[in-house]
Amino acid sequence: MKEQGALTLANGESYAGELIGTSSVEGEVVFFTGMTGYQEVLTDPSYRGQILVFTYPLIGQYGIKQEESESHQIQVAGVIVQTLANNGTKTDLADWLAEADIPVLTGVDTRSLVHQLREAGDQLGVIESAVSKKQHQATGIAAVSVETVKTIDVPDAVGHIVCLDYGVKKSMIEALLARQMRVTIVPFDTATSVIEGLKPDGLLFSNGPGNPNQLEPFLPHIKQLASHYPTLGICMGHQIIAKAFGCTITKQHHGHRGANHPVRHLASNRVFMTSQNHGYVVEAKSVESSELVTAYEHINDGSVEGLVHPSKPIMTVQFHPEANPGPTEAMVVFDQFVASVLKQEVAYVG
Percentages helix, strand, coil for the chain, rounded to the nearest 5? Predict the structure, then answer.
């Protein structure tokens, strides 16, 4: 069903378009700059509850392939595009979104909208229909974390990683499996004793949606675990480990979104193009008085993109080394992590 609709931002700015679906939703309005990878982004738990604006003018042109999804369902609350392709096939993006009851606002001046978000900063917005309203979707980490412990075995495994799931992407797990790591995914609030009972060789603190301050009660638990096992934190995992070890987290003006962010590894001066989706950042000044040191920085704005502990095998990255969508050159981060788990030397170490 199509009708007139609009996105209204918290600052009062409104963007009209044609609404596909009869839903009304609200969420943080963010944008993605990649030309491809819409399926992976839409199913990425990091985007849970957000309204996603695609900057590329035509979205859906190559359809849907179920095995490319990053989770078992579409995670966004709503989609905004300039033009939504309709290929009339079983793998059509428009039909896939409709089946999941995800509203799509098309015909929007996305160029102007993204300019507004860059100038005014990330903010809440509402996609509204004149005809219907919908109960808003559950948001936050509790909505995307697994409910029970799940183990994925791999032939000839050489190690065992426990993933604390704040909204982990499938491709992160696949990156570990490809490196002969058996992986056990546990709910984000799993007790320390349960994790210890799983006898991990290392821990992954995953990506996830929302404000890292929602995990404030778990910080002592997070620090205790990270202090006792080789640890990798990605995106949300990076932020909460940083916070647990004494860093301060602040809200960014408009966040880092998309698949073309240049990041420098300070020790080697190597530069990676990376995929990112976050609206919070580790305050660079706060790192100086914490237990951690900066390992990566964003070339464009100098913000903290990764941390390491000077004496413990703890490493974190703000960007997504598994990409998908996006460049894969930062996958070396998983090589580093597995090497620390196996107590091996690697050519490139943060």
Answer: 25, 35, 40
